[in-house]
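Entries read chain and fold; for instance:
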Amino acid sequence: MTLFKEITLAMSVLVVALLAMTMFSNYRTNVRFIEDQLYTSARNTASSLGLAISKASDGEDVAMAETMINAVFDSGLYEGIVYRNVDGKILYDRHTPLTLDTVPEWFANSIALPPAVASVPVGKEWMLVGRLQIEGHRGQAYTQMWEAFKEVIASFVILSVIAMAGIFFMLKVVLRSLEAVREQAEAVSGNRFIIQDSLPRTKEIRDVVQAINTLVYKVKEVYKQEADAVARYNTLLYEDRQTHLKNRDFFMMKLGSLVSGEDRFSSGYVAAFQLCDPDKVKHEEGGYVLQKVLSFISDIARGIVNGVEEGVACRVREFDVMLIIPSLEESEVTGLLTSAAESCRGAGYCVTIAATPYRAGEAASELLSHLDYALMQAEAERGTAPFIYRAKHDNVPSWGHDAWRKHLRNAMKLDHFVAFYQPVVSRNGLTVQQELLLRLELEGSLLNAGAFIPVVGHLELQEELDRYVLDKVGETLHASEIAVNVSGDFIAHSATMGWLAERKSAWETKKLELSFEVSNSTVMAEPETAATFSAFVQKQGWRFGIDHFTVESEKELTFLQRIKPSYLKIDAVYLLSLVGSEGKREAALFTIARLIDIELIATGVDSEETADRLHKLGIDLLQGFWIGEPAKGAV
């Protein structure tokens, strides 16, 4: 029970008890007054009637006495009148039974009024001739008491309601600052750092608020310092200082990470921009022009990858810029590179542009050999058009868009998609998660996601495919949590949350533990959308993770506070590179993760040595081909 409820209940009980005692006291006073009034009325009437009988007939004319008694009795105010002689013999008696038509029997029984009897002597001069006895009618008294009781109850209820309402609103005002303290404390426990600017007037509560504000401020400062440290170290490791593109180390790490996976980023293109004869340019036009050309090429490369999920531009040699362009079709890549070539020609620069496709499992050395060959072919044409090295991969059919659309729709209809699951394993060997890797059964072979997802994206079928996969996953029993990669289109669609809410009860019946994974580039492109989706997913009891996490700048670490993912999946090579020679950066990254309660999962673990190094750093959750290869299962 909350403090507000406890105080409200205690004060309400106290006020109600005081009201009840006050009302009961007033009621008892009223009852005594009515009893006294009944007796007084009977005594006064008896005195008056006795005196009248004495004067009218000297007390001996019984007929006259009867007439006078009848006149008084017929008023209905008396229950009985008895006239006796001096010997106690009844000369005349009038009585009426006690009937209570308007008063409940339980009420009359609880009161049980005693008879109000008054007796006076009747005399003749100084001689006693008889005695007159009058009993007041208790029915009138019961009626008055019942009406008084109802008024007391009504007053009690009204006053109690008014009192409790007053207590409620008074406590609302008084404890408003305490409510703010509660919200601030809940925010801290939920990894949100809120500083309360408006301090309460109550000294004790103000002291608590100031203490929490100080704690939150210190936590924010620690978070900011550690985020700055990780971002600076990442910049030192992987950023080219002159162009602010990524460097060769990052290019090799990123390419290795992508080709070692089996998701939609495991296929795409690697492109290269190479300045024609830089020594000649430097000799004839000077170093300033050479740097200007390099800056121009860097801006074009940056513009190409900015709109591509997990795309990256890197300066790998002094005058060579390479791009990784995942999840795009050849026609899209050709269009981007052709536009870049035209921009270079328009600026009067000779730049050789070439590209080669990559697929999951392909060796980086082989890819770079293909790219070198493509550059030589493009150089022969002096940069007039980009050269695309074409090699057949994964038995991918060269269909048109209509044919692809038809085959993809039929595959969903006929369940030609096949699920493979790769485990995430804890230090003690327990499988805590299975990541779903989708493959397409086509013409007798299985295509990795990287081979057909670019087509799915181009045909705008990504959201439809995501829903299909989730529906199929929900139909099957699973022993552990299932991680499903979903697209930016899926999380951004206005109907997605309603669609998921409709399926929640059915999935709960099958005890499905579900985790939704979104790529880091999608999160950074639409952080508010990702934050909204993350909050919804975790409210439903599921989990939300960020895949392919890298630190491009402090922005990624700042948004983690807003998005609050359940976990981050980070490439093992990249994670180890962030450790540094003294391990300080690893501590900073771990501090950030602990502050906002995020699990770190290392992916791409391909050897026992890598696993041991990660375990020594405190990374308990690992994923990769050495940990466990993808195994076929039901979608």
Q: What stands out?
A: The first strand starts at residue 78 and ends at 85. The mean pLDDT is 82.
